[in-house]
Amino acid sequence: MKRFPYIPHTEEDIKEMMNVIGIDDIKELYKDVPKLFEGELNISESKSEIEVKRELLELSNRNANLEDYAMFRGAGIYKHYVPSAVYQLATKRNFLTAYTPYQAEVSQGTLQALYEFQTAICELTGMEVANSSMYDGGTAVAEAILMASRVNKKHKSLVAKSIHPEYIEVSRTYTESQGLEIELINYDEKTGRIDLEDLKDKIDENTSSVVISYPNFFGVIENIKRIKEVLPEKVLLIVNAYPIALGLLEAPGKLGADIVVGEGQSLGNYMSFGGPTFGFFASKQKYIRQMPGRIIGETVDADGKRGFVMVLQTREQHIRRAKATSNICSNHALMAVIASVYLSIIGREGLKEIAYQNYQKAHYLAEKLIETEKFDPVFEGEFFNEFVIKPKFDLDKFNEKLLEEKFIGPLNLGRFFDDMKNYGLFCTTELNTKEEIDYLISKVGEIDEINL
Amino acid sequence: MKMKKFTKTHEWVEVEGKNATIGITAHAAEELGDVTFVELPEEGKEVKKGEALCAVESVKSASDVYSPVSGKVIEVNTELDASPEIINEDAEGKGWIVKLELSDESELDDLLTEEEYKNSL
Fold first, then answer.
1. What average pLDDT score do residues A107-127 get?
2. How many separate helices (H) and strands (E) can be counted in chain A?
3. A289–B37: do the CB atoms touch at under 8 Å?
4. Residue A1: its pLDDT value, please?
């Protein structure tokens, strides 16, 4: 029996090939590999399908399943409801198995789904054009900074300290080798919003863009209009938006944003071990030629029938890798298709309702937690579904207690901010029931009894 | 006196005194298909002969434009920002890309004449 029955080469084939290149033993091909790695691999013998299934099931059962947990943490990735129909439709084979369409026009179904996605993103963000997705929220922010620099040929970006700290890291990585400078803008300690005086002080003739989040990492809703007012005309305002919040908040495009980006996971994608997720990217029409990635356009074919084409795709990695402005991956395009299906199922009213529930539940939780007198409020600024409060007890220990009862508690901001050790960033979504919110509050009430 | 020369990499250069106007040839524009974007260089940029001057993107490809001569960029055709299709319409006229101030006129001697370029296609 052949050891690897799926490899098509016969012994004779292999012998003939070795003859041609002048070797006697296949191992000669690997003679440059250090001795250390020679010998048999430390892997077990092959198993039957039944055995493999049992073993994998046993392994997967060791994972915690988020369905069994009450979630009070967001900070960039959120647990939202996904209607069953979303995955039924979006994971049809035609979408699921399609690789990045290189001969794009053959894949009319994929192109149409992405075209619908772009349309939805434009409506959601209030912008004129959107591309057919990015790698994730962090890279979308970084690409927006690069794009702004291409638009106004200036090289400094002022980034709010109150955007996701990991997005700042990604942006630094993207820009440091390209001669771009990133300078952080403080937040106002009272409101949690961007410190407008600090912003004004740091704007100079080299300033290309200003980056804020909406709501910001502390959950606080920035005043986009006010920020836009203090910016000189040529400085672009980049808004990193939480798409679910846009069901309730005014679209950034209507408040003066020039580029709107964000993490799209909340739109019908599950939280899945950190990925894949996808980023969305929209801007004003006049900047379209500086936009990264690919855009799907609508046209007519030779017979006058409606069709879709990929335009401005040449700045993407598959044509000029070294000079690409973006790196889009097949699976991330699938995530965008999922978002497209999600938004079409949820609809305008549905999104409004979801956003409303997120808002209401977070405000109920915040109010009740403060009432326990075991927390100090931190920021005065209005928030959406996340808020920062400061417990008068050890947050990490409290979170450990909660986890034992299958509750995932707030994020300890000390992980990202030295001056915010033991500050908790709480989050609720439409999936938090009143019962679990009340239970969490009762747990705080018991804190004196819990030996922290 | 004006003089027009060509490169094997499908650029043209028209020289008048110290000034050289550069673009891509009509043949190149036709081969590229619909031009969707021209990544223009900044004024003041110094380029060496044979170096990538800028890039022209079409629907299906992106190509570097190599400088036929060395010099300093003194003007760029900013109309291409909004209307890159001018290159398809008039590659060797209104579709010019940059103007350089020549730093070494002798470099022109190595370039192709119109006839030599046409024969090379």
1. 95
2. 12, 15
3. yes
4. 45
Q: What is the dihedral of CA A411, A416, A419, A421, to 10 degrees?
A: 40
Structure tokens at B80: 């291409």
> How confident is the model over A148-163, as pLDDT tens digits?
999 999 999 999 999 9
A149 contacts in chain B (CB < 8 Å): none
ipTM of the modeled complex: 0.75
Averaged pLDDT, B18-28: 95
Q: Dump the DSSP string for A6-74.
A: T----HHHHHHHHHHHT-SSGGGGGTTS-GGG-S--S-PPP--HHHHHHHHHHHHHTSPPGGGSEE---
Give the pair of three-digit tokens for residue B26.
């009509």
Rg (CA), chain A: 26
Residue with tokens 């190509």: B63
Q: What is d(CA A368, CA A345) in angstroms, rounded to the nearest whole number?
A: 34
pTM of the full structure: 0.86
Best residue in B32, B35, B38, B39 to probe A by mutation, most A CBs within 10 Å?
B39
Q: Is A153 on the interface with B (CB under 8 A)?
A: yes
Are A264 and A104 in contact, with CB atoms under 8 Å apart?
no
DSSP state of A299: E
